[in-house]
C-alpha cells in the first residue's frame, strides 16, 4: 500500500495526542503546574493537527462533514463521529486545568474512554479490510491501542518530570505498555510472512488449469490502482527500517524511561524529552512500514 | 445509506464473461470509456494523454495471463502454456465491502437490482472503498476527486429511448466475439444463469467472501500440440476412387 504522508502523520500524531489526553484525563498529573497545563494544549494540538492532516488527501474536502453520517456501517465514519464527540470532554478538562488548575475526574474519565474508542475506530478502518491481509487481524487494533498508551504515558512522564512531580506509577505503566506494544508488533509482523489467502490463481479462477502468471498488463504506465495499492518496499530495506523503528521508537525510550526515576527532575525531563523525540521518529517509521509492507489483494492481477 | 440491502435483491443484474472466447481486443475498454465519459457523473479524465506518463480513469480493463499446467513447457511450438485474456470490471458483489466502508453514504447497492453505484455529489474522495475492493474495480478520478466505477451502464439498460438491443451495457453491446453477456443472475431461467450452470461459471476470489454477482466461464480444454494428428500423411495406400486415380497419375511423373 502507498504510504501517504498525510495518513502517516495523522495516525502518529493522533496516537500521541489521544494517548496523552487519556493520561491527563485519568489524573496522573497535577494540573496546578504550568507544564501540565501546557500538556493539555499539546494533546489537543496533536489531535487537531492529525485530524486536519487526514482531510488533506481527500478529493473533495469541502464535503468532509458527510463522513459523519454512516456510523452504522463504516469505521471511518465512526472515527469521525467519536473524534468530534471526544473533543467535548477533552476541551472541558483542558479548560478547567488551564484556568482553574483543577482536574475533573468524571469528565477526565469520559475523555479517556473517548480517546481509547477513537483510536480503536482508527485501527479498525485498516483491520476491517479483508483485501489487505496484513491488516486484517485483531492484532492491528491491539498495536494501535498499545502504541497510543505507550506514547501517552511517555509524554505524561516527560511533563511530570518537567513539572517536578513524582510519576512512579506512570513510568511503570509506560514500561509495561512499551514492552507490550512492541511485543504485539513483533507478532503482528510475523504474519507478513504468512501465505496469502488470495493468489493469482484464485484471483483469475484459472488455478485448475495451472500456474497463473501475468503476461501483459492492461495499460503501459501506472494507474490509480498501481500507484495506490502497488507500493512495495524491498524486504532488506524493510527489515532495516523496522530495526530503526524498534530501536528509536522502543528500546532507547524504554532505557531512558527506566533510567528516569534515578535522575533529578531536570535531567529526567531532558532524558524523557529525548525519548519523546526518538519515539515520535520511531513511530513515523513504524507507520510508514505499516503501509509500505502491506500487500493488497488486487496486486494478484498485476503480478506484484 | 451504506448498509447493504437487508434482503437478497430480487434481481441480480450482472455480467457473465467467457474467458474461452475473449480475444483481448480491448474494444470493450474503449466503448466503456467512450460511453461513460459522457454519461453517468463526472467524465473519465486522462492525465497527460499525449505525454510520456499517460494515465487515466477506466472502469473496465483487460489483463492477459499465461497459464502453465503442471510440468508444462512454456516456450515455442511444444509449449503447453496458454494465454487467457481477462476482462475485469466491477462484480457488483452481494456482500460488497466497498459499500459498507463508505463514510458518507455515497456508495450504495440498489435494493431492487443489486447494482453498486456511487453518488458522486456525496463522495469526498477518501479512497477507502478502493482499498476495500479486492478486485480493483474502483478508480479515483484524479481530476474530479470522486470515485468512479462500473455502473453496469445503468443509463443504458433501462433507457427506453434506445433500441431494445442497445439496452445492455456498452461493453456487452460492443464485444465482437460475444465474450460478455448481461442478464439477471437471480433468475435461474435467464440465459446468463443457464450459461453459468452449463459451463461451470465461477466467482473470482471466493475467499474474500464478497459473493460477486458477475461470473466467469472457464476456458475450454485445449488439445496439446503433440496430440494433434499430423496434417499430411506421406502414405497414400488407403486412397480410393478418384483420389486413387489422381495418386496413380501423379506417381507416373
TrEMBL record, chain A:
Signal peptide: none annotated. Keywords: Membrane, Transmembrane, Transmembrane helix. InterPro entries: DmsC. The keyword Transmembrane applies. The chain crosses the membrane at residues 7-29, 35-59, 80-98, 104-129, 141-161, 167-188, 241-263, 269-290. The keyword Membrane applies. This is Dimethyl sulfoxide reductase anchor subunit. It comes from Aquamicrobium zhengzhouense.
TrEMBL record, chain B:
PROSITE patterns: 4FE4S_FER_1 (PS00198), 4FE4S_FER_2 (PS51379). The keyword Iron applies. Residues 13-43, 81-112, 114-143 form the 4Fe-4S ferredoxin-type domain. Keywords: 4Fe-4S, Iron, Iron-sulfur, Metal-binding. The keyword Aminoacyl-tRNA synthetase does not apply. Transmembrane segments: none annotated. It comes from the Bacteria. PANTHER family: PROTEIN NRFC, PROTEIN NRFC HOMOLOG. This is 4Fe-4S dicluster domain-containing protein. The lineage of its organism: Bacteria, Pseudomonadati, Pseudomonadota, Alphaproteobacteria, Hyphomicrobiales.
Amino acid at each position: 500500500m502507498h504510504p501517504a504522508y498525510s495518513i502517516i502523520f495523522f495516525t502518529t500524531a493522533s496516537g500521541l495526542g489521544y494517548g496523552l489526553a487519556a493520561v491527563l484525563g485519568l489524573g496522573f498529573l497535577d494540573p496546578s503546574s504550568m507544564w501540565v497545563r501546557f500538556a493539555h494544549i499539546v494533546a489537543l494540538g496533536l489531535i487537531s493537527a492529525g485530524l486536519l492532516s487526514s482531510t488533506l488527501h481527500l478529493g473533495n474536502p469541502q464535503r468532509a462533514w458527510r463522513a459523519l453520517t454512516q456510523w452504522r456501517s463504516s469505521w471511518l465514519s465512526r472515527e469521525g463521529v467519536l473524534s468530534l464527540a471526544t473533543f467535548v470532554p477533552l476541551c472541558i478538562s483542558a479548560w478547567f486545568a488551564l484556568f482553574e488548575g483543577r482536574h475533573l475526574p468524571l469528565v477526565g474519565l469520559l475523555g479517556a474512554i473517548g480517546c481509547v474508542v477513537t483510536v480503536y475506530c482508527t485501527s479498525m478502518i485498516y483491520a476491517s479490510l479483508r483485501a489487505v491481509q496484513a491488516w486484517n487481524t485483531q492484532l492491528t487494533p491491539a498495536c494501535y491501542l498499545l502504541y497510543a498508551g505507550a506514547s501517552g504515558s511517555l509524554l505524561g512522564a516527560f511533563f511530570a518530570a518537567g513539572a517536578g512531580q513524582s510519576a512512579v506509577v506512570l513510568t511503570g505503566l509506560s514500561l509495561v505498555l512499551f514492552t507490550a506494544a512492541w511485543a504485539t508488533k513483533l507478532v503482528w509482523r510475523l504474519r507478513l510472512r504468512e501465505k496469502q489467502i488470495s493468489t493469482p490463481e484464485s484471483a483469475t479462477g484459472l488455478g485448475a488449469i495451472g500456474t497463473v502468471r501475468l503476461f501483459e498488463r492492461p495499460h503501459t504506465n501506472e494507474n490509480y490502482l498501481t500507484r495506490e495499492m502497488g507500493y512495495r518496499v524491498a524486504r532488506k530495506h524493510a527489515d532495516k527500517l523496522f530495526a530503526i523503528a524498534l530501536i528509536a521508537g522502543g528500546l532507547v525510550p524504554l532505557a531512558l524511561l527506566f533510567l528516569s526515576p534515578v535522575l533529578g527532575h531536570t535531567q529526567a525531563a531532558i532524558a524523557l524529552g529525548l525519548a519523546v523525540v526518538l519515539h515520535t521518529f520511531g513511530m513515523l517509521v513504524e507507520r510508514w512500514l505499516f503501509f509500505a509492507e502491506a500487500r493488497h489483494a488486487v496486486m494478484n492481477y498485476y503480478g506484484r | 445509506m451504506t448498509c447493504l440491502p437487508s434482503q437478497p435483491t430480487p434481481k441480480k443484474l450482472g455480467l457473465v464473461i467467457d474467458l474461452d472466447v475473449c480475444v483481448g481486443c480491448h474494444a470493450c475498454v474503449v466503448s466503456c470509456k467512450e460511453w461513460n465519459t459522457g454519461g453517468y457523473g463526472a467524465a473519465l479524465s486522462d492525465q497527460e494523454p499525449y505525454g510520456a506518463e499517460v494515465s487515466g480513469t477506466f472502469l473496465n480493463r483487460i489483463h492477459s495471463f499465461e497459464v502453465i499446467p503442471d510440468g508444462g513447457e512454456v516456450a515455442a511450438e511444444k509449449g503447453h502454456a496458454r494465454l487467457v485474456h481477462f476482462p475485469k470490471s466491477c462484480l457488483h458483489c452481494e456482500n460488497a465491502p466497498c459499500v459498507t466502508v463508505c463514510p458518507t453514504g455515497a456508495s450504495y447497492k440498489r435494493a431492487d437490482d443489486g447494482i453498486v453505484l456511487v453518488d458522486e455529489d456525496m463522495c469526498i474522495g477518501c479512497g477507502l472503498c478502493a482499498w476495500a475492493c479486492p478486485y480493483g474495480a474502483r478508480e479515483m478520478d484524479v481530476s474530479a476527486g470522486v470515485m468512479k466505477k462500473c455502473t453496469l451502464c445503468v443509463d443504458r439498460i433501462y433507457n427506453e429511448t434506445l433500441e431494445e438491443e442497445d439496452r445492455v451495457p456498452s461493453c456487452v453491446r460492443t464485444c465482437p466475439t460475444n465474450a460478455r453477456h448481461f442478464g439477471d443472475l437471480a433468475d435461474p431461467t435467464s440465459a446468463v444463469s443457464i450459461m453459468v450452470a452449463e459451463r461451470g461459471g465461477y466467482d473470482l476470489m471466493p475467499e474474500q467472501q464478497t459473493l460477486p454477482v458477475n461470473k466467469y466461464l472457464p476456458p475450454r480444454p485445449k488439445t496439446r500440440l503433440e496430440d494433434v494428428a499430423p496434417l499430411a500423411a506421406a502414405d497414400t495406400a488407403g486412397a480410393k476412387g478418384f483420389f486413387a486415380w489422381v495418386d496413380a497419375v501423379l506417381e507416373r511423373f
